[in-house]
Amino acid sequence: MDLSLMNKEQKRAIQTTEGPLLIMAGAGSGKTRVLTHRVAYLMQEKEVPARNILAITFTNKAAREMRDRVSALIRNGASDIWVSTFHAMCVRILRSNINYLGYENSFSILDPTDQRSVVKDILKRRNLDIKQHNPRSIIGFISDRKNSLIRPKQSAEEAEGYLDTLYSEIYHDYQQILYRNSALDFDDLIMLTIELFEKEKTVLERYQNLFQYIHVDEYQDTNHAQYQLVKLLAAKYRNICVVGDSDQSIYKFRGADITNILNFEDDYPEAAVIKLEQNYRSSKNILDAANAVIGNNTERKPKALRTDRDGGPKLHSIVSASERGEGQEIVRNIQDLSSGYSYNDMAVLYRTNAQSRAIEDALVKSNIPYKMVGGMKFYDRMEIKDLMSYMKVIQNPNDDIAFERIINVPKRGIGPKTVDKLKEHGVHTGASIYEAIKESDFIGISKNAVVKLMNLNDMLDNLKQKSKYMSVTELVDEVLADTGYLDLLEKENSLESRSRIENLEEFRTVTREFDKDNEVSDELLFTFLSDMALVSDQDGVDEDSGVTLMTMHASKGLEFKIIFIVGLEEGIFPSRRVMFDDKELEEERRLMYVALTRAEDRLFLSRADSRMIYGKTETNMRSRFLSEIPEELVEGEAADTPKPIASDSFTMNSRGPKKKSRVITNNSGVSFTVGDKVEHRKFGEGIISGIKGEGDSQELDIIFTTVGVKRLLANFAPLTKKE
DNA sequence: TTTGATATTTTTTTT
DNA sequence: AAATATCAAA
């Protein structure tokens, strides 16, 4: 195998095949290349059979890419390597073994909307107020527990206080409902695989023997459950290679535990450790900026990436009047650069999906092609979810969650009242909705409704029969025809229904693609649904030409010649929610680091003087992350501007929207602007960090030294200006 | 039961 | 601004 193009550390990482290995791979240090070569090296030089190699990646797209790149290095056999995400691997394992845990092998996988409806059902049944108990936080609670491998019983035992106890009980109900439906949520995939391994040692041993060489990419973003899973699998051979960069840990909110990578050497004292600090991606200016920003994090092992590339152009700072102006400025720069670069080389990164709108609008107006990652996801569209629910019900009629979604879609006169009765029956007897329908005559449902239910029942049974000998595409067509779904849309003939039909058409290209690779069989529908449940946003990035739009989170692992980072304002990025929590602020800064290090040649940093948020105009200070970049690396905005500048001097585009004054005057005639130091009668000294709203309801965000941030009405707050 | 109208809430980030 | 929840009328 030719390793002549590798540096010394990279070679060592590839050739250290036996025993535990920790690769600390900085951004752009050729980590993917090392991983692919290592796998190829194992097969070619060490003659390890492909099926004994496991490689876990963060996204399905990364998995596909890794498989392709290994294929390019070796003659054949790459298709036998296990390359997948944690979740996809667990689905595969559970699919053939979950019956040990009492679930059906044909289990379905819940998406977040399904989870929400399960939780809401539980709240309703327990007569709890949905406003007091936000389903979101309950789902978060359950997810946290599962990621920590805490079962409902243990959660209840360890609960402290009323809320903990209550949520543990809800967790218990939730888990029971899922079990009854043979449904798993994302976290279950990991947790139940571990449970399976602990319960059935022979199954564990089988996989331990199979996975003799294990690789885990993005190890800094694994959670506790994933960590345990890897530990179990690697226990026999201890050939475990993890790759990660603690500076790029950005998924704490999802349970990622950075100590997994920091303590790797404690778990495996014999581990070899290799650091890759040579960056091959970014120009020196970009790298210097990234190093300077991340250097502000205190909780980290110091390290600095090196590059042999020259300085390159300076980073470019852009200030616009509003988010619309920001979009226009981005477009202007894209057009300037489009002579030397392809649109594919450019990406716009933002903190929240909602920020994509203004950018999209500007791109559409200028006829610039773009592709968006995430956002309103294709598979989240109503018609797609409806269709998927039909498929789920056909595959597993006892999937109540899917069943409830389609029971009255299209409208067939089976309303909430009837559904309640069916569910009520289920609570007493343990029957699913599907089973309850067969009893519907005896449980107080009107004759009228019973007939309708029977019709539905017959139609579904009929579809189920058909599904056994049809391709998925054919089945989709049958479902759309038999249910009258397509008819309904065609009859409506509105702009919206047209687009829905287009989306369904688009879905058929997905199924056709799937049918091409899969033979018709009993398992076909199940395989299709499993695959679908695991597709992630990042998987959608394809070859079509265009500027890429995505969140900074979604950009991890990718690189582009030109990067635009937008919305660099306090309260946007860093997000308002974390501004005063040092720990979370450090995670936010790592996110900035990830964003910065995506760029190879050019980097644009953009902010707007004010922008619309929740339908209100807000004015925010420039992001601290901007200020952390040494000014000599940046051109554009005068780098050393301690506070935003008054009035219209930054309306770069004369066609831009009229700028609102960011100086406001209160009832006593005192005027304030962002950055002013003020004195409050009760809270003491503070600094104005933002201005919200319009007219009489204008509010000031003020950071007080004593009490942190407060939002006060400009007209009534007892404020005096200092200095 | 379904529908349309009005009130209320919501945004981090995601496999 | 947009999505969701709640309420009133048909």
From TrEMBL:
Which keywords label this protein?
A: ATP-binding, DNA-binding, Helicase, Hydrolase, Isomerase, Nucleotide-binding
Any one GO molecular-function label of the UniProt entry: 3'-5' DNA helicase activity
Q: Which residues bind ATP?
A: A25, G26, A27, G28, S29, G30, K31, T32
Q: Which portions of this protein are annotated as coiled-coil regions?
A: none
**Which GO biological-process labels does this protein carry?**
DNA replication; recombinational repair; response to radiation
> Catalyses which reaction?
Couples ATP hydrolysis with the unwinding of duplex DNA by translocating in the 3'-5' direction; ATP + H2O = ADP + phosphate + H(+)
Q: Which residues form the UvrD-like helicase C-terminal domain?
A: 284-557
UniProt-annotated stretches for the region Disordered: 641-662
What EC identifiers does the entry list? 5.6.2.4
- An example Gene Ontology cellular component term from the record? cytosol
Residue intervals of the UvrD-like helicase ATP-binding domain: 4-283
Report the InterPro entries cross-referenced here: ATP-dep_DNA_helicase_PcrA, DExx_box_DNA_helicase_dom_sf, DNA_helicase_UvrD-like_C, DNA_helicase_UvrD/REP, P-loop_NTPase, UvrD-like_ATP-bd
Read off the PANTHER family from this record: ATP-DEPENDENT DNA HELICASE SRS2 (PTHR11070:SF2), UVRD / RECB / PCRA DNA HELICASE FAMILY MEMBER (PTHR11070)
**What family classification does the UniProt entry report for this protein?**
Belongs to the helicase family. UvrD subfamily.
List, alphabetically, the NCBIfam families matched. pcrA
Q: What is this protein called?
A: ATP-dependent DNA helicase
